[in-house]
Amino acid sequence: MGIQNDMVKFNVGGRIFQTTATTLANAGRDSFFGALFSDNWDLRQQQNQEFFIDRNPDCFAVLLDLLRTGDLYIPSNVPERLLYKEAMFYGLINHVRTAKLGPFDGNRLKLSKSVTGRAPGDGTGIRAGPDGGCCVAHGSMVHVFDWMLEEHPPLNLDYQRVNDIGWVNAENVLISACERLGRGDGGMGLFSSYTGDLRYKFNVVHDNQIKSYTAGALSFSPDCKIFASCKGRSNEYGVGVWDQLTGKQIDFFYESPGWSLGEADKLQWLNGTNCLLVATLFPRKDNCYISLLDFRQKTMVWSWSDIGAPLTVDEKRVRDAIAMEECNSVCVVNEYEDLGFIDLRFSGGSVRWSSRSRLMKGKMSDEPCYPKLALHNGQLFSSMNDCISVFCGPDWVLTSRLRRSYGGSICDFSIGGDRLFALHSEDNVFDIWETPPTPVI
After folding, report:
1. How far apart are CA 321 and CA 319, in angstroms?
2. 207: how many CB neighbours lie within 10 A of its CB?
3. Which residues form the BTB domain (predicted)?
4. Is the pTM of this model over 0.85?
5. Which member of 5, 21, 274, 397 has the greatest number of CB atoms within 10 A?
6. Which of 248, 255, 131 lies closest to 200 in space, CA to CA?
């Protein structure tokens, strides 16, 4: 490839372009240009053949240079959204994303954009999509944005409060919602991220009867299982499991007396141990309950609670938790952003608090938001009031902080698609943080 006999000529919107088969092959088999090649990557064309494409020539020039060099340069006369749409037509959107975004690194993140939502009231949750988009929950509605941050038709749950949202894939969003008394509504629904249509409703079956229930925290496993905390009207308290492909309930882990599963704040699937972390935290409950469930044996293999612990502020106010399998520990955070660690090798151990991570020094803002935790590519993230802190290294030392000047406290954040999304409590504003690409020499 790349010799004179492999030259290819295009007429795009009346403008002539010449390139080589080698350059076009960089687009990949699944692209528009992949159809020009045989299974053996031999170019399919007659001698001196010219391919006509009735598309924008300015965008074509940018994308052709991207295939040649791997670098993305967008001239001032080319609108970015138009370029993205042309890239989707040619099947090059992933090439554009790769060139525009560098490998995710919390210490190199830059504020790319802020988006103001349209829904009234404070936002309650944000989730990053696998393709760089996101969805934002406001009360009973979920607003979906694609990678270009264009809003799709909203997902409307008819005035039922949304508890959690999760991306099954780029085309489908799962929503958990409160039961509405007298209607039997609530539970979980699978929606199209493009049209907003309800595709499937997930049922809880108890004693061979379909029950009305409130679904809470969500999680997913690589083998296409959906986990959700469930709270019914009688004995349906616990964590349900559904098959992602069929939508059928396949298991249910019932809540044992004296513990809390059905009102969990967070679920996290652990690939290494094939267990599910379930955390029910203050202030939803007066006490905090964190456990690991093994669905293969229907046992709780590890647990921790602050019941009986000294009544100190630090012990009583665990606000979020996340399992760190490589460290054999669960990381927790309190309202002063002290990080604490609980050993996963022993049940019922105490929290080892790390004061070196404290940022607030006992000072709370006028409108505080509870801190949230996330773990991504070996970096630990913690939100507190109007900023997000990044911790790295074996001792989880503070290495960076993300903050902007307006929007109020951060009520939720999420990482995915090489972006970090932060949702603020005021004006429904959410920020998009990106890692700049590495310059192409």
Report:
1. 7
2. 8
3. 6-76
4. yes
5. 21
6. 248
Predicted confidence (pLDDT) at residue 186 exceeds the cutoff of 50: yes
Average pLDDT, the chain: 86
Structure tokens at 248: 């059928």
DSSP-assigned states of every residue in 235-272: S-EEEEEEETTT--EEEEEEPPTT---TT-SEEEEETT
Q: How many angstroms separate the CA atoms of 312 and 176, rounded? A: 34
Dihedral in degrees, nearest 10, Cα atoms 102, 104, 110, 113: 90
- The secondary structure of 364-426 as a DSSP string is --SS-----EEEETTEEEEEETTEEEEEETTTTEEEEEEE-SSS-SEEEEEEETTEEEEEESS
Nearest to 124 by CA among 196, 177, 200, 194: 177
- The residues, ordered by sequence, that sit 6+ positions from 29 with a Cβ below 8 Å of its Cβ are 37
DSSP secondary structure, 144-202, as one string: EE-TT-PBPPPEE-TTPPEEEEEEEETTEEEEEEEEETTTTEEEEEEEETTT--EEEEE
What's the chain's length in residues? Answer: 441
Nearest to 172 by CA among 133, 204, 205, 208: 133
Average pLDDT rounded to a whole number, residues 117-123: 63
Listing DSSP states for 335-362 in one string gives TT--EEEEETTSTTPPPEEEGGG--STT
Phi and psi dihedrals of 373, rounded to 5? -120, 150
DSSP of 263-323, one letter per residue?
T-SEEEEETTTTEEEEEE-TTTSSS-EEEEEETTTTEEEEEEE-TTS---HHHH---EEEE
> Residues 150, 413, 241, CA angle at the centre, nearest 5°?
95
